[in-house]
């Protein structure tokens, strides 16, 4: 799962990043309005944790910009403001949740998990496609009831393909999902082919021969 944390308070930014990194999230950060809007526009995230008060602009204005440009990333607002009006304004602009500072990191983690369940698996933590099942909470995968043992990157790749099922995703999109802003420093996307090859092999071993398809010249997709 990929997380963008937009927060100008350095100690809180580090605390949130450290906490979610320990929970196997890929975390990217921004501390200003300009930096936040650039990253949120250039990349896709499973969830954005967004402070209201940012140097250079308002977090609410940033949220409004994202929704006007059809960015569907989940957004949780964090703010020192505890007024009902601010909460209503944030939710009306398209935020998925609103958490008032100070808060426990465990509560923020629970809010993020709840958002991801709503976004990807309705009321359940399990995403199902054909005979494939992925549990967001347990981080386990099975096909036809048989467990699939995946590396962290293979799991993230499969989750990305599941959330884009029946749609072709490019090598670059996959690279950005797995490595985020570090993608710009990569010499090539050859590692994507290696992850795809290994994932295809593991699915085939369980009977999912044609589930992961190569669309030559374009990318890959999960389809039945």
TrEMBL record:
It holds the Pfam family Response_reg. GO terms for molecular function: phosphorelay response regulator activity; transcription cis-regulatory region binding. Residues 124-224 form the OmpR/PhoB-type domain. Keywords: DNA-binding, Phosphoprotein, Transcription, Transcription regulation, Two-component regulatory system. Gene3D superfamilies: 3.40.50.2300, 6.10.250.690, Winged helix-like DNA-binding domain superfamily/Winged helix DNA-binding domain (1.10.10.10). It comes from the Bacteria. The modification 4-aspartylphosphate is found at residue 51. One of its GO terms (biological process) is regulation of DNA-templated transcription. Residues 2-116 form the Response regulatory domain. The keyword Coiled coil does not apply. This is DNA-binding response OmpR family regulator.
């Amino acid at each position: 799962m990929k997380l963008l944390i937009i927060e100008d308070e350095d100690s809180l930014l580090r605390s949130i990043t450290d906490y979610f990194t320990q929970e196997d999230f890929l975390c990217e950060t921004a501390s200003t309005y300009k930096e936040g809007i650039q990253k949120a526009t250039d990349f896709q995230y499973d969830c954005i944790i967004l402070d209201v008060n940012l140097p250079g602009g308002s977090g609410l204005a940033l949220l409004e910009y994202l929704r006007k440009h059809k960015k569907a990333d989940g957004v949780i607002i964090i703010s020192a403001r505890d007024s009902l009006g601010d909460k209503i304004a944030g939710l009306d602009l398209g935020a998925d949740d609103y958490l008032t500072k100070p808060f426990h990191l465990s509560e923020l983690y629970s809010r993020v998990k709840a958002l991801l369940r709503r976004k990807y698996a309705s009321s359940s933590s399990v995403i199902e496609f054909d005979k494939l099942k992925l549990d967001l909470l347990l981080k386990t995968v099975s096909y036809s009831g048989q467990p699939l043992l995946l590396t962290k990157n293979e799991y993230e790749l499969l989750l990305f393909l599941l959330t884009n099922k029946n749609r072709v995703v490019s090598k670059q999109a996959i690279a950005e999902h797995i490595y985020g802003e570090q993608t710009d420093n990569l010499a090539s996307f050859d590692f994507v082919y290696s992850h795809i090859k290994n994932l295809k092999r593991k699915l085939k071993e369980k009977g999912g021969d044609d589930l992961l398809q190569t669309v030559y010249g374009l990318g890959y997709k999960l389809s039945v």
